[in-house]
Design goal:
Length: 142
Amino acid sequence: MQYLMQKLPIEIVNYIIPYTYNVQQKTLLNDIENFTEVKTFLSNLYHKYWIIERLSLDQEDKNWLINDLFRCANNYNPTKYYVDSFYNIFKRNIYLQTNEEVDKYVNELETKDVTTQINVLLGLLTEQERSTFRSTFQQQSI
């Protein structure tokens, strides 16, 4: 990081540095910690099951994880049609206010790398929803 800051003009550095000292809300810090913890746990769990135990192809663990996250967000209904809870999760993104906007966003999201999809959907879930999802698949051992 220090190396990158040295490449920037001093005017920009002087503008950025004050933001690094802002204290963040405890709830935000807890959410970030929960996101990281749950993502790491799920990545390890799915990798162990799909790659190590099942000897599946590379990326299969991530493909199943995003599939299960979408199913969970859709109350385990087929993802051909989304239910209200699915739309409500995506509407937590302040730029998505209507179901049509969510549909368009999800279609675009599905063209992205699977890791990006996982990060977006896990990021939209609340701490409680992440923990519930984690517990569900931890108990089932996938």
